[in-house]
């Protein structure tokens, strides 16, 4: 999808919505594409945070590492359903 995307942009039958259209073109709202992109960025950020935590184990003081890990795990537990929903690739 490019930045100029508008739903139904390739419609040839002058429909105003997917319900009227017979062209089999994409009527997905732009917001859905934007939210999917945002979802992917958040999932990647979470994976990077996990990886950074794993790498940090080498040089962070043990107590600090455990505290940071606990905070990350608590955050993940608090948002588990939402994260699982994101990782499954469902629509936002
Ligand atoms: Zn059409």
Radius of gyration: 21 Å
- The number of E-state strands comes to 0
> Main β-sheet: number of strands, strand sense, barrel status?
none
The number of helical segments is: 3
Bin the helical content.
Answer: 55-70%
Proportion of strand residues: under 5%
pLDDT averaged residue by residue: 83
- What is bound: which ligands? zinc ion
- Which secondary-structure class do the elements indicate? mainly alpha
Question: Would you mind describing this structure in some detail?
Answer:
- The chain is mainly alpha-helical.
- It has helices at residues 30-56, 62-78, 80-87.
- It has a domain at 30-87.
- The chain is built from three helices and no strands.
- Bound molecules: zinc ion.
- Residues 11-13, 15, 21-23 line the site of zinc ion.
Q: How are the SSEs placed, and which strands pair?
A:
Layout: H1 30-56, H2 62-78, H3 80-87
Helix pairs in contact: 1-2
Q: What is this entry, summarized?
A:
Helices cover 57% and strands 0% of the residues.
Primary descriptors:
single chain; mainly alpha; 3 helices; 57% helix
């Amino acid at each position: 999808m490019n930045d100029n995307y508008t739903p139904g942009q390739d419609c040839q039958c002058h429909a105003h919505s997917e319900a009227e259209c017979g062209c089999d073109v994409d009527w997905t709202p732009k917001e859905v594409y934007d939210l999917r992109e945002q979802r992917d960025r958040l999932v990647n950020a979470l994976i990077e945070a996990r990886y950074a935590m794993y790498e940090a184990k080498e040089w962070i003081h043990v107590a600090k590492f455990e505290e940071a890990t606990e905070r990350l795990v608590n955050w993940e537990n608090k948002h588990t359903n939402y994260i699982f929903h994101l990782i499954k690739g469902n629509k936002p």
